[in-house]
Amino acid sequence: MQAKRISLQPLYDWQINDQADNHLTEEQRKPWRVEVEDLAPSCHDLLLWRPDGKQYVVRLEIENGNPRLHLFGPDEDDALAHLTMTDKGVFIAPAHCPAGTLSGVVAGENGITTFWRGQEPGPEPWAAGFVPLPGRECGVRVRDGVIEFIPMNRAGFLSYDAEPRAVVAPKQMFLDEVNGALGTSFTVSQFAMAKVSHCGAKWTVLPEFGSAIRLEEGVLLEIPLNADGTLDGEDAIGEVTVPESQEYLDAVNEALGTSFTMNQFAGR
Fold this sequence. Notes:
Layout: E1 4-7, H1 14-17, E2 33-40, E3 43-49, E4 55-63, E5 66-72, E6 81-86, E7 89-94, E8 102-108, E9 111-116, E10 131-132, E11 138-143, E12 146-151, E13 165-166, H2 172-182, E14 195-198, E15 201-206, E16 211-216, E17 219-224, E18 238-239, H3 246-256
Antiparallel strand pairs: 1-2, 2-3, 3-4, 4-5, 5-6, 6-7, 7-8, 8-9, 10-11, 11-12, 12-13, 14-15, 15-16, 16-17, 17-18
């Protein structure tokens, strides 16, 4: 498919039209040549030439349901920066940034804040308060006493359009990393029989049995814990019909104030 190019009207500094151009030089008053190039169904280029002939390119794509711009120039073959527009804000990142360096800025309802790339946690969180964890490919924060994490994407940036997930049964190694990044002092013992909100209900976490439990009209419901210490989704909620042991039921009874025994369950 051959690329199509369309010429647009020359572009002038907006301040000329607003009669706020007293400070502009003669060079800055000159028009820029502008063209649009249709490279492919997934990619369009906006080409701009300064009066001295230097070229800038703004490449437009759609990525994960969001408009994404790649900024080139002047006269550069590689992008200098990327800009992604989402419902949560505008995320601007340089094309190249070593681990542990400033990775970009977020412009949203809370103004402009900075965010940092993974490997080494940066001193400033991004807009939602997440700090990257070294080697974990995720960012963490604490909100209302609950540890939440959000994954990093393949480029090493926090996935801003992902939904934060609560960590309800972490391992101490993970907590040590969280404590180092956030200056907290969490221990595993704090999460035993913790009460958490999930899927519109309150659950009691049983880390030693890899699940969380609750009662609904006398029925014991269970939801598994994932390996990362988060609770599984709503589709994984099920009725306990075959308890693994009386020790499990003893933990349930202690947590919920019940008196279940093995012979009460239909699966036995």
